Amino acid sequence: MPSLRDLISAALAPLPVVLACALSAAFLAYPIFWIAGDAIGFQSLVNRCGQLLLLLSTILAARFFRLGRRDIGFESKSGLFRQVASGIPLGIAMLGLHALALIAVDVREIDPDTWSNAQRLGLTALKALATGLIVATVEETMFRGVLFASLRKAAGAATASVVSAFYFALLHFLRSDMKPAAADVEWTTGFRLVGDALAHLSNPDVSSFLALFLAGVFLAQIRMAFPKGLGYCIGIHAGWVCAIKTAKAATNGIPGGNWSFLIGSYDGMIGYLTAAWMSVLIVLLAVGTRRVSKAGQDTPEGLANESH
Predict the structure, then answer these.
(1) Exposed end of the chain (fewer CB within 10 Å): N or C?
(2) In which domain, by residue range, is 103 found?
(3) Average pLDDT for residues 176-204, to the nearest whole number?
């Protein structure tokens, strides 16, 4: 069992990496903006630089901890594609039901203009799925791949699950409302933008943070249940993004309803209801995993392994 010192070290270890990436992004964004011009907004440029640096830090961490493809959770290429393909419909079903529940309790309502145009709705869903696959591949490789594997080596699977889920949720709130005009951008602008983003971390929407945290725990459970199943995490995550973006485009929020507290301010889709649904899924997955494990131990092969 890991010591308290190991647990604290594991919990704090990613923090300086996140800060270093954020500050480096603030430093690098200005010269890139100066060269590229205003082809991309400065806020978006800082975000992209930060994401790329985080991805680079993930690669360096994998080498430092000597993590191979199997440690990170990657199956063979064909196996990975099968896992992703299997996970996508599961993810869509999970948060598709969630979206229907929001409609049922009058938190959101169907947008008739969107639903009357099947071509536009289908194109929206395809774009959402493409976005989901990109986002899920990057985030799952970082959080349930390298970070989870690194933390598991240092402090055990339970700590890895909680800590990776915490940073997964936290980084969703690392964003700034500042959108400086091109003429106002200077060397210090990036640092002011990062400072504003860090200030947002002190007051995240509680319901949305809880939903994202529990979603991270659920994906970590998938990772523990299928050691070479990172593809399932990518597929489910992509399905979630697809379902949320499509449902958000196809429905409208109903402010001031009796059940409006069920969603938070993060995106108008997730909140306490999502957190409750994720909790149910976590329990169901834990029970199912335990039953499968017990059934395996009860087979002649499992009993033979226990006797050695």
Answers:
(1) C
(2) 4-307
(3) 89
